[in-house]
């Protein structure tokens, strides 16, 4: 081939080379995208599972509501004290 | 996962543009080589992918050394990212070299020192992933990976210098070639522009992919940690 004056026609090899390059790169980038997408999905699913496994929010409401009766009882005590005082006054 | 930083987004776009310009320079701008014809245009991407392949293998070895010193799992993620990207680029290098060899050497493959050492390097890093898969304990796996990449990186200078040290038919781009080398050529101005631009473009592409792959590695580590938390 090196004795020829004009360059030999090796364009098919050149095309094959660049096709291989872009094909392999595209496959790698696709696999990269798929793996990344799957990891994001896994992360979302695991975060949801973590939230579900955490104590339910209803309990928190009951805990928050728990002090209210105490407040009522103290108020009732406060109310009852003047009554007793009134009673005492009436006795006098 | 943290959203992509603006710098990385810009780097993604720049990488695509650089690849497009590099393809234009290699396929259209650079003149046709007189003796080999159009197939010589494969040379620009062949050398550029080899360069980033070797760069990544060396970067993995450096990450391995840092991991062994710092014992920080983040360096294991960096190491895996470097090896994975380099493995892809080096595979392309070998295939492009084989395609170039067919019309120039009249064979797809020959057990020349350069081809042999390059194939061994590729196989060493394929084995790296296969062996990593076999280790359950993350600390042991990372320690093994660090030592492996450190030892494996010795194949990189051996591959690089093989055409300078041994009798070979593979042409040498930088430095003097063996007299028996087939396919050697002198680069004209246009060829040099395409060649050096391809080296620059692929270095930027490598950095971009490397950064993205590290982000994915961090995400995978986060998923693993969450799995352990949810299961226990």
Can you tag this structure with a few keywords?
A: 92 residues; mainly alpha; B: 232 residues; Four Helix Bundle (Hemerythrin (Met), subunit A); 7 helices
What does this structure look like?
With 92 residues, chain A is mostly helical. Chain A has a domain at 10-56. Chain A has three helices and no strands. Chain A is rod-shaped and about 85 Å long. The model of chain A is unreliable at 68-92 (pLDDT under 50). By secondary structure, chain B is an all-alpha fold. In chain B, 76% of the residues lie in helices and 0% in strands. In chain B, helix 2 (42-70) crosses helix 5, helix 3 (73-105) runs antiparallel to helix 7 (189-231) and helix 4 runs antiparallel to helix 5. Chain B is globular. The two termini of chain B are 23 Å apart. The model of chain B has no long low-confidence stretch (mean pLDDT 92).
Short description:
The complex is a heterodimer of chains A (92) and B (232). Chain A has helices at residues 11-53, 57-65, 67-91.
Number of strands of chain B: 0
Helix proportion of chain A: over 70%
Mean pLDDT of chain A: 72
Helical amount among residues of chain B, as a percent range? over 70%
| The level-1 CATH class of chain B | Mainly Alpha
- Range of strand content of chain A: under 5%
CA-based shape of chain A: rod-shaped
Q: What are the low-pLDDT stretches of chain B, counting only 5+ consecutive residues below 50? A: none
The profile of the biggest β sheet of chain B is: none
SSE layout and pairing:
The complex is a heterodimer of chains A (92) and B (232).
Chain A: H1 11-53, H2 57-65, H3 67-91
Chain B: H1 6-29, H2 42-70, H3 73-105, H4 113-133, H5 138-152, H6 155-165, H7 189-231
Helix pairs in contact in B: 1-7, 2-3, 2-5, 2-7, 3-4, 3-5, 3-7, 4-5, 4-6
């Amino acid at each position: 081939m090196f004795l020829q004056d004009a360059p030999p026609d090796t364009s098919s090899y050149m095309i094959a080379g660049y096709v291989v390059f872009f094909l392999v790169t595209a496959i790698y980038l696709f696999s990269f995208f798929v793996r990344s997408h799957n990891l994001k999905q896994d992360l979302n699913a695991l975060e949801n599972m973590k939230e579900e496994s955490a104590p339910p929010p209803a309990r928190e409401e009951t805990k928050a509501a728990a002090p209210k009766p105490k407040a009522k009882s103290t108020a009732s005590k406060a109310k009852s004290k003047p009554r007793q005082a009134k009673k005492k006054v009436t006795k006098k | 996962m943290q959203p992509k930083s603006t710098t990385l987004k810009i780097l993604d776009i720049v990488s695509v543009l650089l690849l497009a310009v590099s393809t234009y320079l290699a396929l259209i701008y650079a003149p046709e080589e007189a003796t080999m014809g159009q197939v010589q245009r494969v040379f620009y991407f062949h050398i550029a992918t080899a360069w980033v392949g070797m760069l990544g293998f060396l970067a993995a070895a450096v990450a391995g050394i840092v991991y062994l010193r710092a014992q920080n799992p983040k360096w294991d993620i960096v190491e895996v990212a470097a090896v994975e990207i380099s493995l892809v680029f080096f595979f392309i290098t070998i295939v492009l070299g084989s395609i170039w060899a067919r019309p120039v050497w009249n064979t797809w493959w020959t057990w020349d020192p350069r081809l042999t050492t390059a194939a061994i390097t590729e196989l060493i890093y394929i084995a790296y992933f296969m062996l990593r898969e076999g280790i359950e304990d993350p600390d042991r796996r990372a320690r093994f990976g660090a030592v492996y990449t450190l030892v494996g990186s010795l194949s990189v200078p051996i591959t690089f210098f093989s055409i300078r040290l041994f009798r070979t038919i593979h042409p040498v781009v930088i430095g003097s070639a063996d007299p028996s080398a087939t396919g050697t050529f002198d680069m004209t101005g246009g060829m040099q522009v395409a060649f050096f631009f391809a080296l620059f473009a692929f270095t930027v592409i490598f950095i971009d992919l490397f950064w993205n792959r590290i982000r994915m590695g961090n995400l995978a580590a986060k998923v693993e940690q969450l799995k352990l938390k949810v299961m226990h």
